[in-house]
Design goal:
Elements (H helix, E strand, L loop, with lengths): L2 H26 L5 H23 L3 H26 L11 H8 L2 H4 L1 H4 L5 H4 L2 E2 L2 E2 H21 L3
Antiparallel strand pairs: 1-2
Helix pairs in contact: 1-2, 1-8, 2-3, 2-4, 2-8, 3-8
């Protein structure tokens, strides 16, 4: 695969992950928690950065954007692991870092269908195919990090 297409693949993976989350929520009633919607924000940012890097195709700015996407992916991985091992064990997740970011940016007011947390963290980490959603998300963030690091490190 061409190096430039790795960023397009990363954006596609983000959109796919977001589509699964939205279908799960709106078609199957699996309401998100604050950490879930925080991860949605990170996927959206990675997709935007990856598309910008793909559009620029070559050069130092595209490479820098790939590194930014990789860093966002590592942050998303940390958020997903926090959701799995910390937040899902707590009785609530209001007033956490994730909740404060989403509310501070007014995302829950601007796009409630996408960013409104409607479940507690201990309720939202439902298994899909026997694996909790947060673990699926962690795996996707790890894949994104690897893809974007490969893209950023490949020589011209």
């Amino acid at each position: 695969m061409k190096r430039e297409n790795l960023t397009l693949a990363a954006a596609g993976l983000c959109v796919g992950g977001l589509a699964v989350a939205l279908v799960s929520q709106h078609q199957f009633g699996m309401e998100p928690c604050a950490w879930c919607v925080f991860q949605r924000l990170i996927y959206l940012l990675i997709a935007i950065v990856a598309l910008l890097a793909w559009g620029l195709n070559r050069g130092p700015v595209a490479k820098a954007l790939s590194w930014v996407g990789a860093l966002l992916s590592v942050g998303g991985l940390a958020a997903a692991l926090h959701q799995q091992f910390v937040a899902s064990k707590a009785e609530g997740c209001s007033q956490t870092f994730a909740d404060l970011v989403i509310k501070g940016l007014w995302l829950d007011e601007l796009a409630p269908w996408f960013f409104k947390a409607r479940a507690f963290c201990n309720e939202a980490n439902i298994p899909m195919a026997g694996i909790p959603y947060a673990i699926w998300s962690a795996v996707l963030f790890a894949v994104l990090a690897v893809v974007l690091i490969i893209r950023a490190r490949r020589p011209r």
